[in-house]
Give the backbone structure.
Amino acid sequence: MMTAEAPAAGLAPSGVDLEAGIRSRRRRRSLTWLAFGLVGLIMGAVWAVGIATSTATVNTPGAAATQVFGTAPGTAPASAYDTLVTANTALIIDFTGTWGSIAVDAEMFDVDLTLETGTYFVAIYLNNNATGWSVLQLEFRQVDMTCAAAGPTDWDSPAATSVMVIETEDAWAVFPGLASGGGADYCFGIRDITPKANDTAGTYIRRPTPSASPTAPIFVAMLGRSA
C-alpha cells in the first residue's frame, strides 16, 4: 500500500505555493514604492515653502496699516525713568499687493540718559496680538543721537540692531550696554525699506492676500538700569 510523503526540505513548492509567493512579493514591492512616493510628496511639499526661495512681483497698491502706540494705565506707579524714554514717530507699513514696505525711517523711541549715571538697556516689546500676517519680521536699529537729529545716513550705519520676529505675543528686541552722561541720547526705530520689505535677515513683511488687513502691531519700549 502506498503512503503520502511530505516534501523534503529544499524541494520546489507546488504551483499554488509559488503563485502565492509571487503575489506576496509583488504586494511588498508595491507597498515599498508607495511608501517612497508618499515620503517624496511630503518632503517636496515642505521643501517648496522655504522663505529663501519665495519670489513675487505685485504692483497693485493696497491699504496701509499704521502702528499706534499704547498708553500706560492710569494707576501705573511712577518710575525714576518715566520721562527718560518717550514715543516719537509711529511706524507706518504700506502695501503693494502682498508685500509690505516702509517708505520713511520710523524714528519710534527717544531715550535721554544725559543726566543719568550707570549703564542701561532698552527692551522693545510687542504689546498686542498682531494677527493676519504671512510674515512680520522687523529690524530695530539704534542710533546714538536724538531722533530729531538722526538722518538717513545715520540709519544706514546704526550703532546696533536687533531683529524682532513676530510669531507670538512674546516678541521683543533688546539693546543692552547703553552708557549715560553727557551726550548719551539714543533713538530706536526701523529703517525704510522699499519697494518691498524682503530682507530675510532684517525687515521682511508680507500679508496673505492683496485684500487682507492684518492687525497693526503696537510696541512698548522699556528702559532699565543694568549696572
